[in-house]
Specification:
The protein is mainly beta. The protein has one helix spanning about 1-15, and strands at about 20-30, 35, 40-45, 50-60, 60-70, 75, 85-95, 105-115, 125-135, 140-145, 150-155, 155-160, 160-175. An 8-stranded antiparallel barrel has the order 1-4-5-7-8-9-10-13. A two-stranded antiparallel sheet has the order 11-12.
């Protein structure tokens, strides 16, 4: 009886990883801006992101999951100020279109919580974009992303949202296959 239960749990455990994957990814900001109460300011220098996602295929083509990333945002040119970086924790949905070719287009959306540093208050994170999956493992995408942040000055909060378009690359590790 114990061996049967152990075998059953082993099979169920392996089946839970079927049709799932972990993606390691990175991205480069193509043009980030901070949006304040009544103005927007371009960032200076380079900005990047590194992260990981776990996704499970719920129906053919549709994957749902979650992710975490470290996002180094640009600093502000005009004020020579160091702004905040973010660690978003988010839910993700990705739909890959079925084609006979080894290159498959996809659309993707992220929604979660942005943990910000440098005294910036935390806020919402979201992203939406499209990309190409090559040979089931390599991904290239372009996404619009925004991290909501606020700075407290005196007794008032002032928004400092970071918006950008990013070019990302990633590699899928397929689990249970």
């Amino acid at each position: 009886m114990k061996k049967t239960l152990l075998g059953l749990f082993l099979v169920l455990g392996m089946a839970s990883f079927a049709n799932s994957k972990i993606e390691l990814k990175g991205a480069y900001d193509l043009g980030g801006k901070y949006h304040f109460e009544k103005s927007s300011v371009k960032g200076k220098a380079n900005a990047m992101e590194a992260g990981a996602e776990y996704r499970y295929e719920v129906t053919p083509g549709l994957e749902l999951g979650g992710g975490v990333a470290y996002q180094a945002h640009k600093d502000v040119k005009e004020y020579k100020a160091e702004m905040y970086d973010s660690v978003p924790v988010y839910a993700t949905a990705k739909y890959t279109f079925d084609t006979a070719a080894p290159v498959k287009p996809y659309v993707k959306g992220d929604l979660g919580y942005s943990i910000n540093n440098n005294d910036a208050k935390d806020g919402v994170y979201y992203g939406v974009g499209a990309g190409l999956n090559i040979n089931d493992n390599f991904n290239v995408d372009v996404m619009y992303k925004e991290n909501k942040g606020k700075y407290e000055i005196g007794t008032k909060d002032y928004k400092a949202d970071y918006r950008r378009v990013s070019l990302g690359v990633g590699y899928n590790f397929n689990l249970g296959q």
